[in-house]
Prior knowledge:
Layout: H1 6-15, E1 22-23, E2 34-38, E3 42-48, E4 57-62, E5 65-73, E6 94-102, E7 113-117, E8 120-126
Antiparallel strand pairs: 1-6, 2-3, 3-8, 4-5, 5-6, 7-8
Amino acid sequence: MNRTNPFDEIEQFLGRASFGGDRAWGRDLRTTDIDVAEYDDEFVVMADLPGYDREDIDVRATEGRLTITAERDTEREDGDHEADRRYLRRERRHESTTRSVDLPGPVVDEDASATYRHGVLTVTLPKTADVADEGHRIDVA
């Protein structure tokens, strides 16, 4: 009888993404959904990060791997602040998410750019120009 480990299936479903990416687990299991698109001369990664400020987001490209990290404090001070409030349980204090993805090909890390609009982070990574991709033409005699 061939038995499989159900936890392997759960991990595969929840923790693995295409392109060799993985999701980092936080206390509250929050992850960032991404899309990776390939164009002629660049890769574009789009990540959903609703509710974060631009300053809360850190994007790094290193050796063919893109890592997106976002952190924020969910408690906001407003005019209705009670100094004598005592929390019995407090779970909304800090949120963070991290997502890494292996890029499908080599990129020029230094020329990468990112924009953040309406809760969507878009990272553009130019591909490394490689003459070898076209191959070498061999004349037939």
